[in-house]
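Worked example 2:
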Amino acid sequence: MTAKEEALELVNKFANKSDELQEGTTWEYDIQCALISIESTIKALENNQWQNKTIIDHYKEVEQEITKL
């Protein structure tokens, strides 16, 4: 899966959940939720950065793609 596809999938997961929980949520809100999630993932992986370099780089690409949405 490309970084762009993964970014869109992650944002859509939040969009589907937020529609169930409250009315009036926006795409921008879903994007912010996805960014918080991906930033938390990157931060956790950076605890063992030497082992997770490739994965961290991938998630940083996903983060960039989310910001482009």
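The helical segments are 3-21, 27-45, 49-68. The chain is about 85% helix and 0% strand.
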